[in-house]
Amino acid sequence: MDFPEGNNIFLLSEYKKGVIQSLLSRKLRFKSDDGSEFSEWKNKKLSECLDYEQPTNYLVSSTEYEDFYETPVVTAGKTFILGYTNENTGIYNKNLPVIIFDDFTTASQFVDFPFKAKSSAMKILTATEGNDIKFMFEILQGIKYVPGAHGRHWISVFANLMVNVPSYDEQVKIGLFLSSIDKKISLIKEIIR
Question: Would the CA dihedral through 82, 84, 88, 92 be positive or negative?
Fold first, then answer.
């Protein structure tokens, strides 16, 4: 059976891509709550916008996952949630939400719930002061990079990349707007399951 909701997911996803493109090229700008213009965007290294932490303290010990366990075990790849563990120590639950970044493939995921990690080959990224994690996730998603060699790409490549970023207040407005689109897409996906 063909669901019209599936077409809505595609349309919303394409709309989001267009909005992001317009935002990043600054053809579309948000205004402050009082109606004034935000300041100009600034070039910064990604390492100025995002801190990283190794997942060593949050690695899962056992891969015997069960759906009725409480704590998700995540990976930065497409699978995202590998399963659920009953381990109750070493759960990452501070500074949420965060971005998990696969150091080898450069895939990333936005995580807004406590979790355990499967691989030491990922970084847990948090926004530095004055930066919004959702906005920074969208910036990261827009970086076109294909890893050519097996290496640790966060420190060697991504941390040094220059990105344009608006003021914190504009980042928050952009992040909230894009999150509202993501919520609509998620809701439609739930409906057609």
Answer: positive
- pLDDT, one tens digit per residue, over 102-118 is 988 899 999 999 999 99
pTM for this predicted structure? 0.88
Backbone angles phi, psi at 84, to 5 degrees: -130, 140
pLDDT surpasses 60 at 1: no
**Adjacency order of strands within the sheet including 50-53:** 50-53, 122-127, 98-102, 108-111
Tokens 């996906």: give the residue: 189
What backbone torsions phi and psi does residue 10 show, to the nearest 5 degrees? -60, -45
- Give the long-range contacts of residues 146-153, CB within 8 A, separation 24 or more: 147/104, 147/105, 147/106, 150/104, 151/104, 152/103, 152/104, 153/103, 153/104, 153/106
Structural element, H or E, at residue 84: strand 81-85
**What pLDDT sits at residue 114?**
97
- Higher per-residue pLDDT: 145 or 139: 139
CB crowding 92-121: b at 16 or more within 10 Å, else e: beeeeebbbbbbbbbbbbbbeeebbbbbeb
